[in-house]
Write the structure tokens for this entry.
Amino acid sequence: MHFSCSQKALMHSISIVQKGVSAKTTLPILKGIYIETNNEGLRLVGTDLEIGIEHVMEADVLQEGIVVVDARLFSEIIRKLPDAEVDITLKENNQLEIKCASTEFNILVYSPDEFPELPIVEEDQVYEIAQELFKGMIRQTVFATSQDESRPILTGVLMEIEENTLNMVALDGYRLALRKGKISGNSNHKVVVPAKTLNEVNRILNPDEEEPLHITLTNNHALFTAGKTKLISRLLEGEFINYKQILPKEHRSKVTIKGKEILNSIERASLLAKEGRNNLVRFVVNDEKMVITSNSELGKVHEEINIVLEGEDIEIAFNSKYFIDALKVIDDEEVCLEFTTNLSPGILKPLANENYTYLVLPVRLASN
């Protein structure tokens, strides 16, 4: 193996595939990056057996070959090199020679024979979606996945494709996030993708890229292709909760409010709520005003916001964190809150469109 390329391009490629490398493993080979030189240039692969990331970059290939290098060490070496041409050669005795300007490294490498091959995903049915849109859909759902490994299916996001519409759903037992978007493809599909996978897909997406993201789904794997980068992930097994049954069909109170205004008020109220047991903030909705309060051993806070109310007055309480998380990912200026009773889930969504719905369970008040 012998190739040369720019230090910046190589560092960029390493940073992409390194996200797939296993941080905690008993198999040393999984701590490495697989590097292959061929007539296409340089192919780099990192995998932890759950996720595999492959990236192809241009390079001046003088001799074809395959090697596996320690990801952490190789990354640190390339990062510290000057911004110049890097020349890399595989020598005898598993020594990799790295030259750049007046710097030269020689490091030991692994045999590539033990490196696991990425699963082969037949790209018979490929869906296409704008990279900017999918990036936004991940941002607006993945935060609501569960951190509880005892219910693994809830640690992922449901991707449900129905008639060129992609529904992405995340829930953790206390809240639910639903985002809808347009996707092109000829068939319906339903899979649950690990949150970790979608976070890594989010990192490789370029919102300014006109070329769409290509998605291939099978019974066991999902393949995401963005330009020269491919990410393959195992899917989560099991039956996802029927989220459509959870969403309320009606409401008695609808509050229209400035998103930034209510976010700022809840964030201030949460400064005291964090000192309590449930991060609890109380909403009192009455006529044209919403009062947000929070009490703890350290004191109390009182906020008032002007609103437009349709329907009944209501007093209800929520975990402040759950509201803050959702308000931070809604980009619209105005939002609406829908309530039925103070023991029923509340709904938060943008006023101007129906693409995003967020449900959160209330906290029972002492007086209830």
User: Anything to note?
Assistant: Residues 126-244 form a domain with the DNA Polymerase III; Chain A, domain 2 fold (CATH 3.10.150.10). The mean pLDDT is 94. The chain is about 20% helix and 45% strand. The chain has three domains: 2-114, 126-244, 248-360.
